[in-house]
Amino acid sequence: MPAASSKKVAMDGNEAVARIAYAVNDVIAIYPITPASPMGEWSDMWASQAKPNVWGHVPHIVEMQSEAGAAGAVHGSLQAGALTTTFTASQGLLLMIPNMYKIAGELTPMVMHVAARSVATHALSIFGDQSDVMSVRSTGFALLASNSVQEAMDMALIAQRATLESRVPFIHFFDGFRTSHEINKIDVVDKACVQEMLPEAAVYAHRNRALSPDNPVLRGTAQNPDAFFQSREACNPFYLSCPEIVESSMQRFAGLSGRNYQLFEYSGDENAEVVFVLMGSGVGAIKETLPHFHAQGKQVGCLAVRLYRPFSITHFIAALPQSVKTLVVLDRTKEPGSVGEPLYLDIVSALQEGDRQSVKCFGGRYGLSSKEFTPAMVKGILETLEAGKLPKHFTIGIHDDVTHTSVAFDKSFHLEDKDTVRALFYGLGSDGTVGANKNTIKIIGEKTDLYTQGYFVYDSKKAGSITVSHLRFGPKPIDSSYLIQEANIVACHQFPFLEKIDVLETIQSGGIFLLNSPHDAASVWEHLPHKVQKTILDKQLTFYVIDAFKIAKEVGMGNRINTIMQTCFFAVSNILPEATVIAEIKQAIKKTYGKRGLSVIERNNQAVDLTLENLHQVQVPKKVTAHSNGHRWVPESAPDFVQSVTSKFLAGRGEDLPVSAMPVDGTYPTGTAQYERRGIADEV
Amino acid sequence: MPAASSKKVAMDGNEAVARIAYAVNDVIAIYPITPASPMGEWSDMWASQAKPNVWGHVPHIVEMQSEAGAAGAVHGSLQAGALTTTFTASQGLLLMIPNMYKIAGELTPMVMHVAARSVATHALSIFGDQSDVMSVRSTGFALLASNSVQEAMDMALIAQRATLESRVPFIHFFDGFRTSHEINKIDVVDKACVQEMLPEAAVYAHRNRALSPDNPVLRGTAQNPDAFFQSREACNPFYLSCPEIVESSMQRFAGLSGRNYQLFEYSGDENAEVVFVLMGSGVGAIKETLPHFHAQGKQVGCLAVRLYRPFSITHFIAALPQSVKTLVVLDRTKEPGSVGEPLYLDIVSALQEGDRQSVKCFGGRYGLSSKEFTPAMVKGILETLEAGKLPKHFTIGIHDDVTHTSVAFDKSFHLEDKDTVRALFYGLGSDGTVGANKNTIKIIGEKTDLYTQGYFVYDSKKAGSITVSHLRFGPKPIDSSYLIQEANIVACHQFPFLEKIDVLETIQSGGIFLLNSPHDAASVWEHLPHKVQKTILDKQLTFYVIDAFKIAKEVGMGNRINTIMQTCFFAVSNILPEATVIAEIKQAIKKTYGKRGLSVIERNNQAVDLTLENLHQVQVPKKVTAHSNGHRWVPESAPDFVQSVTSKFLAGRGEDLPVSAMPVDGTYPTGTAQYERRGIADEV
């Protein structure tokens, strides 16, 4: 394999953004909220290490009592002339609204970075959608979207230049978890580029507007009806010129980095009749599906809205092919009672004003609270549209059997790249699987030129629950903004999972199955459930077992099997030479456990050495021998709701529940935790 | 004059709403914010008087530490099964947003009453517009608008029934100050009507959904990506049925009260080609202008949007005449950077979806922060439209010489009703003028069948500033939702005002001018400024003087001239027989000053008795004798900004300042208060 490029580094969206935000600000007011917290944590750590920003001083990090306090601190710090930022999401962003109106009204440059997350409604959710960002679209902040980890880093910087030059404050947002927590190998923006992007005169002007006894001004007055309205309109020129300023920031950045961005980015057929319009990570899924449509002779395109506010109708119309007859506008939010979701409403009006009123518009909701958005769904929407059956307002990704908004799609359709390794790892929260996989990405990223992507699924109570790691490695950039649809490697780190969840559901024919098993290669077959046996035979899998717990115990590591399973993965996947892998894993062990003393390092190294001799391929019999009917998640005595709903959640099949199965107002029966306790953790 | 109807009472919008809210709730969580505070104050007072609600118990009033606390208290109280409300505005409403998403997500019936007010941006403002209400349109709350004091009382009750039946929580809103503080003589909803409007089964169902150890349920869970989206869509049927429920509530109310309301209320020409679309008190100004257009042969209409969320496209389209070619959508808010203001965006999309896409739409901003909205402006918009010069997005009521959004209008045009007495009173904050005028309205309201309206203008620092009371009385209902454009009586309670402001600016020919003057009828002329003399002669005014301060001093009342001037007003206006007036004023004195002891009452009564013999008509000379050039507000040595901007504010002519005169970001020079101090209060 060729050596890795020195500029490319694997990191997640939060780190990518934090690196820029830290570099260009004097003050960072933080308050933790998932999924934005790591941005604050990185900043806090770097400051504690006395890492300087581009001006050579260490930013002042201030943690407040809530996001309302953080917003107040930001407002105050900006008024003192400091370049200031904050990171937030969801309710945290809502608490900042009053200050945001003031910051924007006073034309104060700043970039706030938002890992977009659901706002709590019938239930809280820590996961990603754009309902938080959309709820602040009235504040006068500009809204700039990133659709990937690379873009999150780039846009963070472009926004910083644009806010300083335009005086319009920015929210730079990217999808929570999908972008904030996805690890991707990206081109890192270097310090020279950051410096070139900062407009010196505008920085000076901002500092010069500081409230100061040396140059006193009055700001934050109370106005009466005689003057308020005129004053409110005085900001118009700043908003009118903002889109061009963002555009020129993007052009400058392109000159420095080679990466080109536009306010509205079109991709796909030049003569497209149907165009999808959306913001955020979902763009990845659509762009991946366009070649499929093209191959079918379908003229389809995708318009990614990058600068949502201020919305430039001119740029929007210019980006749209003349041939377009239908727009499918996708909103990652829901506003009950509205005529349509926000992006849809804006696009309908923009078409009207841009003299393209003959273009038909459909509005779809997708991806609420990190619900998947896949090429299969994109295809489902297009086919339903072609069949003349697309509702004016629809949902995609769920089964709405109540108000029948949902569009059907073929779940088996996928567009996984054959040259990309797609590996799934099933572990337990806190068993080290996720950490080991992050390490694996880093090793591959550094030792090869392969592109890498890592995404980790856990539910909101992390410890004791199942974790699923989705790793992709390959020679092409990886834009797939969704979970692995077809895996060529599946590793199950916990034997009891086999009875309970369908770990081989997405494995491809001829794939590799790696199992941590208390039973050896000779005897394991008889202990496998019927379904697992059948899949191994039907799909002709290559099947490996190792008793990782046994090795861990032998070397005195208790239940810590992560380095053992990591070594197995490298062995079966054959991505790197064995010697390199062993050396790298040992290097990682030294780094990770260095503080715990030599004996811990020694034990881990020993475990690695013992791994390969204990990893065995299973000689798979010719036929299924098991009669097991699978795990029963709840006893027959459980109440109806538990049988029909709770059991699905426990089995990891909540996806299958239709709208009619859900309480209308988030009210659930009590006493169901007793059934949940029969689940995973206690049996391991 | 005929006796007053027993059902009609003069009150302001806040009291009208508070009466209903108090009657139908168990718990009222309050936190004061202008202009919503009086609703909480009324409730608190009634509870302290142990006044029962319709169920016969005294509502629990709880004052919190902020609106965020009030929202939390509301959420908690609702979850305990109590019917609960709160009152707020502006930033107060913003602080409630996180709880509002939860309350709506959990389908919890409640009505929150909002006296709509500007959100602070470049400056704070306590005055009215709909920027607060629009900023919560994503929350899932229904939004129901009242356009007058009568409607505010009626809609408060209609909303209460609708929320209970639909389970969708409501914001009932009305324009801050214009409706919340306008006193109007309205039909009071009686207790029987309230009781008939409350749906017993739905009240019971709400109480039954309470979180209770006797019937435990789990509410407020955390959801994962597997289920959140489906759950979020489960509320759809409730939002879909909400408009019909509001409609049926309105029908039931019509049966009980005789007052008919609709989701979208159309008035004007049945074959209108141009229709104005808006919400709130501005509807009054447009409806008054429609007969003028009709008389000119112009086919114009007005569509008042009453139920803004959930927005029913079906009802909207049905309310719109088939003949319409152009809609002028007026938003009382500004969202910088958006494609258009919220109502405009919704209407454009609703036309598209309702198959009326050929109708052209214009979007206008008006009335920000209690900026006036008058028939002259309505006419200005229509004429600019007819001339083909209306910008797609425009402003009305200001002069935008920067981005040229503003539409011109003829300030001299007005539609004041000839049969309505229109009286203006200039007083000083805290001099008792406003209180006396409120008393006057009450007396006229109770002793005649005349309709009454009172509106009081003061700037945000009340004491020491000029107050202007606008009183209308007449045989027809008074819907004029703007200041008096042409007065037939002007009373100036402070002689020094004559030098400083144009108190006779709007007086009609042949009008009455009442002046509190230290100079007697024989000598006053020589003390009048040039402009005042000229207006008296040009407009052939009937001119009365009284030295109210002299009388007040004589009877030992110091500077309290309010009852004296009130008596004069009745004398010169001739609305009621002299004997009735004297008796009523003395009755009011007894009520107002009863607690201060007999001597205060006696002194006031004496002042009243002395008034009429000291009130004299001035024999106006034939020509202007004065040479005064009016008051210079700031010295010539003052800085440019003070000369050009501050001086306008001081002269009460802030209205005349164009957009270009205003700082873009709310930043003002300091040290200007020294000029302000040369203003009013210290000289009186």
Give a topology summary.
2 copies of one chain form a homodimer.
Chain A: E1 8-12, H1 13-24, E2 27-30, H2 37-48, E3 60-63, H3 67-79, E4 84-88, H4 90-95, H5 97-105, E5 111-116, H6 131-134, E6 142-146, H7 149-166, E7 170-175, E8 183-187, H8 191-197, H9 200-208, E9 217-219, H10 228-233, H11 236-257, E10 264-268, E11 274-278, H12 282-295, E12 300-305, E13 307-309, H13 313-319, E14 326-331, H14 342-353, E15 360-366, H15 375-386, E16 393-396, E17 406-407, E18 421-428, H16 433-447, E19 451-457, E20 466-474, E21 487-492, H17 497-500, E22 507-516, H18 530-538, E23 542-546, H19 548-554, H20 562-573, H21 578-593, H22 598-614, E24 616-617, H23 640-650, E25 667-669, H24 673-676
Parallel strand pairs in A: 2-3, 2-4, 4-5, 5-7, 6-7, 11-12, 11-14, 14-15, 15-16, 16-17, 18-21, 21-22, 22-23
Antiparallel strand pairs in A: 1-8, 6-13, 8-19, 10-12, 18-20, 19-20, 23-24
Helix pairs in contact in A: 1-2, 1-7, 3-5, 7-11, 12-15, 16-20, 19-22, 20-21, 20-22, 21-22
